[in-house]
Amino acid sequence: MSVAAILLPVFVLVFLAFALLLLLGGRRKAALAAGEVDRELAPLDDRAWPANVRQASNAFRNQFELPVLFYLVVTLALVTRKADIGFVVLSWIFVLSRFCQAFVHVTSNEVRWRFLSYAIGFGALVLMWVLFALSILLAPVIP
To answer: Which of 143, 33, 14 lies closest to 75 in space, CA to CA?
Structure first.
């Protein structure tokens, strides 16, 4: 696999984090302008913000949970040259699931759909780690 093919899902996921940060900033600015924020609580308590701001904040925060393990396995697979077509397909499944989860998070916030997209991404990530670990552990030993 080419480096570009392996890293494109990473670039797309980073774009999602930036997009969510911009959305969060816009929602915070609008909430402040509308007087919907308890300015005393806001620095330390998310409950000071309206629900739509907390949704965007949670969606942004989620980009630094499971995706950290995604970034790590992609980096390791790239460096060790263990990323094949199956690995890249699983990468795209993970990234698409993150987009779905973020979309649900910032719109309806329906827990059932959010969990489904999370579970699909989690499953893809687990498979990526298992395949990567097996490719390393079962590699022939060269004397």
So the answer is: 14
What span, in angstroms and rounded, lies between the C-alpha atoms of 62 and 99? Answer: 11
The predicted-structure confidence for 10-53, as pLDDT tens digits, reads as follows: 999 999 999 999 999 999 999 999 999 988 777 777 888 899 99
- Residues 86 and 71: their CA atoms lie apart, in Å, by 16
Q: How far apart are the C-alpha atoms of 49 and 53, rounded to whole Å?
A: 6
pTM (global) more than 0.90: yes
Task: Report the distance separating Cα 128 and Cα 74, nearest Å.
Answer: 9
Spatial contact of 98 and 121, defined as CB atoms under 8 Å apart: yes
